[in-house]
Amino acid sequence: MFTGIVEELGEITAVETLDDACRFRVRGPVVTEGARHGDSIAVNGVCLTVVDHEGDEFTADVMAETLNRSSLGVLATGSRVNLERPTAVGARLGGHIVQGHVDGTGEIVERKPSEHWEIVKISLPTDLARYVVEKGSITVDGISLTVVDAGPDFFTVSLIPTTLALTTLGLKQPGDPVNLEVDVIAKYVERLLGTQGGTR
């Protein structure tokens, strides 16, 4: 489990394309400290398993399902990525409960800078819209954010200078894809109530 509080802005240092998968080598001095084979690290909000670790880099295999469901397939050598290690038991939950299981992708639609923050509009797959509410939580490229406005096919978030400086959202421009993970609690509630899109 993760919290959506990005620990560092890492970099893809190598991409090996396989028949039905990809192998990434990722540089991240903070998240690789003490890393071992089999550990989990979230890369742009996608929970990946450490295959190998050397120095300040680790490798992870990404299967076709993950490449198809997330934006990891567009990463290339030199791409910057948000990195986070799993939450330790007993640690403070600074963001919200994040699984690292991407529900879909959106795109940066618009950026509106102001003096102390920036409003970013992001497209939202219509089948995920029912899980997104104003002042609720959503994960964008692994970043726990609060929804400012929620529409039928978009939402907006307000980014503080720290988020802009220390995550990929400070770099992405309109048209760039982002990974989305909605609040898992909303999905469980829907399942328990036996509802789907507001019908019984």
Automatic annotation (TrEMBL):
PROSITE patterns for this protein: LUMAZINE_BIND
CDD domains: Riboflavin_synthase_like
Keyword annotations of the record: Repeat, Riboflavin biosynthesis, Transferase
The keyword Transferase is assigned to this record: yes
Residue span, Lumazine-binding domain: 1-96, 97-193
Pfam families assigned to the protein according to its UniProt record, in alphabetical order: Lum_binding (PF00677)
Broad class of enzyme this protein falls into: transferase
Protein EC: 2.5.1.9
Catalytic activity: 2 6,7-dimethyl-8-(1-D-ribityl)lumazine + H(+) = 5-amino-6-(D-ribitylamino)uracil + riboflavin
InterPro entries in the record: ATP_synth_asu-like_sf, Lumazine-bd, Lumazine-bd_dom, Riboflavin_synthase-like_b-brl
Stretches forming Lumazine-binding repeats: 1-96, 97-193
Function: Catalyzes the dismutation of two molecules of 6,7-dimethyl-8-ribityllumazine, resulting in the formation of riboflavin and 5-amino-6-(D-ribitylamino)uracil.
NCBIfam families, per database record: PRK09289.1 (NF006767), PRK13020.1 (NF009566), ribE (TIGR00187)
Protein name: Riboflavin synthase
Native organism: Streptomyces ambofaciens
